[in-house]
Amino acid sequence: MLKLGIIGTNWITQQFVEAAAASQKYELTSVYSRHEDTGKTFAEKNGGQVYTSLETFFKAGDFDVVYIASPNSLHAAQTIQALDAGKEVIVEKPLVSNPTEYAQVKDALAAHPELHVFEAARHIHEPNFRAIRKQLSEMSVINGATLTYMKYSSRFDNYLAGENPNVFTTTFSGGALQDLGVYVVYDAVAWFGKPNRVHYYTTPLRTGADGKGIAVLGYDDFDVTLNIGKNTNSYLPSEIYGLKDTIVMDNAAELKSVIYHASDGSTKRLSTEPAANPMLAEVDDFATVLNDPKNPDNMRHYQTWLHLSEIVNGVLYDLRRKASLVFPADK
């Protein structure tokens, strides 16, 4: 049983803790929150000792692995702090703000080669994601894709009321691309590889962050269009195009329904019923590696995830640069 510490007590942390409990591979033992009342409320529901000092959390907390779900701009420093404290690390996506921070995390990992850093890009661990990759390997030609993930944020009403939630500010490395865009960039990189060129056309907010946008990733023989947004909802399906055949997804991030339309007009369901908690697959995969880190298959999987994470981070940064989206973390 892995002893789990958490940084952050928002809804996504709650979902992660519930997935960890459902896996029966983790026990929540330590909770960090800047506010004692918030931490106590979370701990009363889920368990764990509460800490309001991050230094004390890492020094006195009884845990093996920490899940970091703080604002994006804090991820890199907290990941390095965790590694220096001898903790395994799971970081909610995006892992860091830019390639410079990624290099700093890699340096910290090199100094602690017995430890691991996982980016919690949950959907790449799900069976339906792998089913798409398998079908792609059987298609003779790929002619491009249109991948959509637009979901109205629960915080956007606050933004419209004149507030500046962290997820909609450049100060905390927020915006549509860094949040929902991570999913579709992961899709593209995992399924088609690193693009040769990128463009990003945004709808900016008053904070300077992107509320929604359209990205185009260029490959040798096709382009992939990404539609992302946090200030509106889209119900468009996502598609990957062959010649006469097409893969159709209900949603490029949720992947609850995936249908293959063959060239002869027949259809085949590629998807299976997803778990009730979408984080269950990733927490299982992370625990498998952490419980047997020297197993060759586990080592290979971990290195694949880490390499994919680095490429995705670089693509996100290149997209931001094309749109002149600059974070304080970049300077």
Q: What descriptive keywords fit this protein?
A:
331 residues, alpha/beta, Rossmann fold, Dihydrodipicolinate Reductase, domain 2, 2 domains, 8-stranded mixed sheet, 6-stranded parallel sheet, 38% helix, Oxidoreductase, NAD(P)-bd_dom_sf, nucleotide binding
Quick structural overview:
One of its GO terms (molecular function) is nucleotide binding. The chain has 331 residues and is α/β, with parallel strands linked by helices.
Q: How is this structure best described in words?
A:
This protein has 331 residues and is α/β, with parallel strands linked by helices. The protein folds into 2 domains: 115 residues, Rossmann fold, CATH 3.40.50; 173 residues, Dihydrodipicolinate Reductase, domain 2. 38% of the residues lie in helices and 23% in strands. The chain contains 11 helices and 14 strands. The strands form 2 sheets. It has an 8-stranded mixed beta sheet. Strands 3-2-1-4-5-6 form a 6-stranded parallel beta sheet, sandwiched between helices. A hairpin with a 5-residue loop joins β13 and β14. The model has no long low-confidence stretch (mean pLDDT 97). It comes from Furfurilactobacillus siliginis.
Helical element count?
11
Write the H/E string, N to C. Answer: EHEHEHEHEHEHEHHHEEEEEEEHH
How many domain modules?
Answer: 2
* CATH-derived topology of the largest domain: Dihydrodipicolinate Reductase, domain 2
| Total DSSP E strands | 14
| CATH H-level superfamily of the largest domain | Dihydrodipicolinate Reductase, domain 2
Radius of gyration: 20 Å
Q: What's the overall geometry? A: globular
* Strand residue percentage: 15-25%
Q: How many strands, which pairing sense, and closed or not: the largest β-sheet?
A: 8 strands, mixed
CATH architecture of the largest domain: 2-Layer Sandwich
Helical content class: 25-40%
| pLDDT averaged residue by residue | 97
